[in-house]
Amino acid sequence: MEYNVTDLHNEKFKFSISYKELKNFYSIYSGMDDLEFFSNIKEILHFCCIVSYFKELTIDQTLGDKGIIHEISHLLLWGHDDLEGKERLKYIRECFDVMMKLA
After folding, report:
1. Within-domain flag for 1
2. Across the 103 residues of the chain, what is the mean pLDDT of every consecutive 10-residue run?
3. Residue 14, in any domain of the structure
Protein backbone atom coordinates (compact mmCIF):
# COMPACT_ATOMS: atom_id res chain seq x y z
CA MET A 1 0.00 0.00 0.00
CA GLU A 2 1.16 3.52 -0.74
CA TYR A 3 0.62 6.72 1.20
CA ASN A 4 1.67 10.36 0.94
CA VAL A 5 3.17 12.62 3.60
CA THR A 6 3.79 16.36 3.52
CA ASP A 7 6.63 17.67 5.70
CA LEU A 8 7.17 20.96 7.53
CA HIS A 9 8.38 22.65 4.35
CA ASN A 10 5.32 21.50 2.39
CA GLU A 11 7.44 18.98 0.52
CA LYS A 12 5.53 15.86 -0.49
CA PHE A 13 6.85 12.32 -0.08
CA LYS A 14 5.40 9.02 -1.26
CA PHE A 15 6.01 5.88 0.80
CA SER A 16 4.99 2.28 0.40
CA ILE A 17 4.61 -0.45 2.97
CA SER A 18 3.43 -4.03 2.99
CA TYR A 19 0.51 -4.81 5.29
CA LYS A 20 1.61 -8.45 5.30
CA GLU A 21 5.09 -7.38 6.42
CA LEU A 22 3.63 -5.27 9.24
CA LYS A 23 1.59 -8.25 10.43
CA ASN A 24 4.73 -10.38 10.34
CA PHE A 25 6.66 -7.84 12.43
CA TYR A 26 3.80 -7.73 14.95
CA SER A 27 3.96 -11.50 15.25
CA ILE A 28 7.73 -11.45 15.76
CA TYR A 29 7.71 -8.63 18.31
CA SER A 30 4.76 -9.93 20.31
CA GLY A 31 6.40 -13.36 20.52
CA MET A 32 9.62 -12.02 22.05
CA ASP A 33 10.50 -12.44 25.70
CA ASP A 34 11.10 -9.26 27.70
CA LEU A 35 14.86 -9.20 27.12
CA GLU A 36 14.49 -9.60 23.34
CA PHE A 37 11.71 -7.00 23.32
CA PHE A 38 13.88 -4.48 25.17
CA SER A 39 16.87 -5.27 22.95
CA ASN A 40 14.74 -4.41 19.89
CA ILE A 41 12.96 -1.43 21.45
CA LYS A 42 14.17 1.09 18.84
CA GLU A 43 12.74 -1.01 15.99
CA ILE A 44 9.57 -1.56 18.02
CA LEU A 45 9.26 2.20 18.60
CA HIS A 46 9.42 2.78 14.85
CA PHE A 47 6.87 0.02 14.26
CA CYS A 48 4.53 1.62 16.84
CA CYS A 49 4.81 4.99 15.09
CA ILE A 50 3.85 3.48 11.73
CA VAL A 51 0.98 1.36 13.05
CA SER A 52 -0.33 4.23 15.22
CA TYR A 53 -0.41 6.44 12.13
CA PHE A 54 -2.30 3.89 10.02
CA LYS A 55 -4.73 2.98 12.79
CA GLU A 56 -5.25 6.68 13.59
CA LEU A 57 -4.66 6.13 17.29
CA THR A 58 -5.28 9.16 19.50
CA ILE A 59 -2.62 11.39 21.01
CA ASP A 60 -3.59 10.06 24.45
CA GLN A 61 -2.98 6.48 23.27
CA THR A 62 0.40 7.33 21.74
CA LEU A 63 2.06 10.52 23.00
CA GLY A 64 0.13 11.29 26.18
CA ASP A 65 1.59 10.51 29.60
CA LYS A 66 0.43 6.87 29.43
CA GLY A 67 0.71 6.57 25.64
CA ILE A 68 2.76 3.72 24.23
CA ILE A 69 5.30 5.92 22.44
CA HIS A 70 5.74 8.15 25.50
CA GLU A 71 6.23 5.08 27.70
CA ILE A 72 8.78 3.61 25.27
CA SER A 73 10.73 6.88 25.47
CA HIS A 74 10.83 6.50 29.26
CA LEU A 75 12.06 2.94 28.84
CA LEU A 76 14.83 4.17 26.53
CA LEU A 77 15.82 6.87 29.03
CA TRP A 78 15.72 4.85 32.24
CA GLY A 79 15.92 1.19 31.23
CA HIS A 80 13.99 -1.73 32.66
CA ASP A 81 16.25 -3.08 35.41
CA ASP A 82 14.52 -1.64 38.48
CA LEU A 83 10.97 -2.41 39.64
CA GLU A 84 9.53 0.71 38.00
CA GLY A 85 11.20 -0.20 34.71
CA LYS A 86 9.88 -3.76 34.88
CA GLU A 87 6.36 -2.46 35.50
CA ARG A 88 6.74 0.01 32.63
CA LEU A 89 7.89 -2.77 30.28
CA LYS A 90 4.92 -4.91 31.34
CA TYR A 91 2.54 -2.01 30.63
CA ILE A 92 4.16 -1.35 27.22
CA ARG A 93 3.83 -5.01 26.29
CA GLU A 94 0.13 -4.98 27.24
CA CYS A 95 -0.44 -1.84 25.16
CA PHE A 96 1.57 -3.30 22.29
CA ASP A 97 -0.38 -6.56 22.25
CA VAL A 98 -3.73 -4.73 22.08
CA MET A 99 -3.08 -1.50 20.19
CA MET A 100 -0.54 -2.67 17.62
CA LYS A 101 -2.42 -5.81 16.60
CA LEU A 102 -3.47 -5.81 12.97
CA ALA A 103 -6.55 -7.56 11.59
Report:
1. no
2. 94 95 98 97 98 97 97 94 93 98 94
3. no
